[in-house]
Design a protein that fits this description.
Blueprint (H helix, E strand, L loop, with lengths): L2 H23 L3 H5 L2 E9 L4 E4 H14 L1 E16 L2 E14 L4 E15 L2 E15 L21 H11 L4 H13 L3 E5 L2 H11 L6 E3 L3 H6 L1 H4 L9 H6 L7 H9 L3 E4 L3 E3 L4 E5 L5 H7 L2 E6 L4 E2 L2 H24 L7 E5 L7 E7 L6
Parallel strand pairs: 1-6, 7-15, 8-9, 9-12, 10-13, 12-15
Antiparallel strand pairs: 1-2, 3-4, 4-5, 5-6, 10-11, 11-14
Protein name: SnoaL-like domain-containing protein
Pfam family, one: LUD_dom
InterPro entries: FTHF_cligase-like_sf, LUD_dom, NagB/RpiA_transferase-like, NTF2-like_dom_sf, SnoaL-like
Amino acid sequence: MTTFQAIADRVEIQALQAEFTDAVMMRDRARLAALFTADGVLRMPNIPIELTGPEQIRLGGEKLQEQWVFFVQNTHPGAIAIDGDTATGRAHMHEIARTRNGLEGLNYAIYHDTYRRTPDGWRFAERVYELRYLDTTPLGGSAPGENAGPAEHSAEQPAERHTERHTEPAAAESLERAAEALAARGFAVEVLADAAAARARVGELVDEKDAVYAYSSETLRLSGLDEDLADDRYPRAVKPRVLTMDRETEADGIRQLLGTPDVVVGSVVAVTETGSVVLASGSGSQLPATTGGAARVIWIVGAQKVVPDLPAALRRLEEHALPLESERTEAAYGVPSAVNQLVVFNAPTRFSRATVLLLRQAIGY
């Protein structure tokens, strides 16, 4: 191979890398797919995704694109080693993104590439994405038009954006990932259509003889479960009994009832796609039962509470759930709420069976 040919090949491969990023930025999935050989593979283990052939790459790219509020990708060429009609190389990536399910931030990554010379020029035979650094700190800026309307540049814009993000139901793929991850960690998981289905399912799961504790939850209130589980059908229901007891003279009895029911039913602030359940509390009254005191735990979780990871769960708590809960407690008790206890369940507790009812519907906050 002549020196001129080697230079020409290197320039063409760098142009191929740049074409990939340009197709991504222009959201031209057909053009992006055409940059791969007929058996070309795109692997992104961190998602995880493995797409083979131009058609899969095009369709997979479209699914990813649907999740973006915005996405910016920069490519910096790395080393290239040419061996006849094949070559290997790397491209260094810097990306900034915000997705519809609440994930945002920036990252640095490397594409490890294999290239093949074809009659149409150099093409990707394989691209493997390696994430090197991820920062999920909320972004300070926004894409033009992301918050369209008269208040586009007002001081209220970030709060409005956060509210919309935290109330939108997660995509079906996110629910599936969360369900699979929870099941892998030992939780019983059911994906249900809506609150009515959850209400019926809880009626099946809780026996009339059970001492059932339904702790305070907007999800339970809105679904009707709060009322159901205080009904005469459940003569050993905990909350109605506690409400008749004196908090000063019968404090020990209240503590025992709340801490060791047969079944505790409620909701949580977030469930992650990695299989964690996040529960926050101001009083701590529901924690003894949920962390092992109850024989069974049942959580009803609206689709808007499914988030990518723990940082996103904590942002959801701080930006959305806590302000709304504070509004409720201010109106009811004259004081704001607080996150005085925070529990992350990465698996059920040793002596409790935990069931997560994931809804495709948004409910609660």
